Each structure stands twice: as C-alpha cells, then as structure tokens.
Amino acid sequence: MKRKKVIALTLSVFMLFSLGACGSSTAKNEAEVSPEQTQASPADTGTEKGTDAETEAQEGGRVLGLVLLNGAIEHCQHFDEGVRDVAAKNGDEVITLDGAYSVETINKCIEDLVAREVDAIIVDALDKEGHISSIKIANAAGIPVVQSDNICADESVVIGMTASDNYDAGYQCGVDAAAKMEKRGETGKAICLENPGAPAPEARLEGFLKACEDKGIEVLAVQPGAGTEAAAATTENLIQAYPEANICFCIDDPAAMGAYSSLKTAGMIPDCLVYGVDGNTENKELIASGEIAGTVQQDPFLMGQTSAEFFYSYWANEDYEFNVTLPITFINSDNVADYL
Q: In this structure, is residue 272 part of a structural domain?
C-alpha cells in the first residue's frame, strides 16, 4: 500500500547504540545511562550525540530520535548503523535512547524525545499495541513516527512501518529441521519458545508451526521464553517434561543462546537441533562448530536505512510504500561460512 505525505515536517530517524535506558526509566535504568549521555554506535567515533544533535538543531539541521529495543544486542547495533548512514547523507543528527527490552522504558524514551523536540522518532518496537499511547503524544507535538521490527496495531499513528519477513523466517527453520530429521531417520519432536503479543516473534512461531504441520514434526509444547535468561529457564523446564525433544525453536538468537545453554548442560547438544532468528555472530559461530542447527539472517542495517528513508519521502511529499517487508536469509552449516 502506498501513501502520500501531505504534511511537511523534517527529519530521518536514526539508530544509535546507547549504553543504557532513557533517563526517565526506572531507578535501575537511570543508573545505567543519563538521557543527556547517549553514545555513538561502534561505527561512529564515540561522540556524545545528545549534545551534538542539539547544537546541530540550532544551526538548522534535523534531529532524529531513535529508541532501540535493546542496545546491547547485535541486531540493534546494526539497525543503528543503517539509520545513521541515511542521516549522515542528509546532514542530520541522531539522539538514541535504549528501551532496555521493556515496553514501559521504550514509552518513557519516546516521551523523553518529544520533550527534547526532535523532528522525528523511530521506535524499534517490542509490542504492536503497547507504544500507541506514547506515539500519540508525539503525534500531538507534530512529530512523525515510524515503527520498526514489530508492526503497529494502529496504522493511523505512524507514517510507515518496516519488518523482516518473520513468517518465512520461522517456516525456513521448520523446513530445515524436517530435512535433518528425515536424514537421521527420526520423527521430529519440537519444543518452542514464544513471546506473546510481539508481532515479529508471533509471526516466526506461526511460520515454524506451519512448517511442522506440513512436514510432519510433532510439536510437544509452546511456552514463553523471551530473552536469554528466560529462555534458559523455560528450556530447562521443558526438557524435564519432554526429554524426547530433538528440536528447539526459539523466537530470536538471544533466546536460542539461553536454550542452547540449558540443552548443553543436559547433554542434549548437538542431538537437539536449536534454531533462532537474527543472524547474530555468536550463533553463527556455534552453527559453524556444529553446536546449533540454524539461524535466520535479517538485514538490520537495511531495516535502519528503510526506517529513516520514510521520513525523507514523507517530508518531500512523495509516494512511498507504507509497510515494507524485508527479505531474510536462512543460515545453516551449508552456508554459514559465507556469513562469518
């Protein structure tokens, strides 16, 4: 679907890796980083973007606000680089805050950026509905918002959305697992970790479950397991209940690392095939060593670029695709060397 922008605001939002959560978050997050001390991504030179962006605004440049889902993970760091790439080409600056994998913290960061009077905001979202009230605050201030990674349930509050083909990511994991089970002469028995309410993980799980249905894999259980620690705990419980499990599907690579840890401790690696999504380096190294089965390479750099480019089309009053789905690449032992 294409939309034409009628309002002329200014900016392109870019992702930047910060050291902690936004300053208006909980006491724990406040201890990690001040809202005035955002740090440049590894691709940059380590300047303090809060100060530079405010100076640039006084000189007429745009200030882009970015809220990262979790600045500690590789996916978000590359997302940051993509946003910054487009911003730099347009002579604009970025303020980046870390949502610390919390709906509440992400929302506080959005409102913090509104208070700073940025020109646009990119939300690397955790939830399809949980950020709408804070996005509406930005709308009321005349600040355009793009939501990325997870689509927004209310399309009227954003000027664009982008995400990977998450359904296909899950489906490809299931197809690979079925092929490996057939080669072994075994029946696939899968345990799955989910993150209810988050559209991207939900789509990945949906795709994996469809592949299981199509390929004859038995699904033993589906339980919440978002984040490395939670995934490790959930997997430990699942393998006690289902010791026959020989496939473990995880909604992202951090969760896959947690599941891998518990399975390794239980002596079930490499017999139990572990799958994740993101294409993190650590996971790909474990694929290369034969410890885990596969991951799905997203293109967070392109996602960051695409998220930022929405604003420039919007401000130029050009037609553009409102909801952009980006392709993925499945990685296993056959092709992992190409991605390390």
A: yes
Provide the domain limits for residue 31: 2-158+300-326
Considering the domain architecture, whether residues 287 and 238 belong to the same structural domain is answered as: yes
122: its two tokens = 């990119």
Residues 6 or more apart in contact with residue 207 via CB below 8 angstroms: 166, 167, 168, 169, 170, 171, 172, 173, 174
For tokens 């390929």, the residue is 215
Which DSSP string corresponds to 114-127?
HHTT-SEEEEE-S-
Number of domains in the chain: 2
Task: Look up residue 311 and give its two tokens.
Answer: 């604003």
Is the Cβ–Cβ distance between 278 and 337 less than 8 Å?
no
Whether 333 maps to a domain, the answer reads no
Which residue carries 């992702």 as its tokens? 15
Q: Are 36 and 25 in contact (CB under 8 A)?
A: no
Asked whether the beta carbons of 253 and 232 are under 8 A apart, the reply is: no
CATH of the domain at 243: 3.40.50.2300
Give pLDDT tens digits for 142-197.
Answer: 999 999 998 899 999 999 999 999 999 999 999 999 999 999 999 999 999 999 88
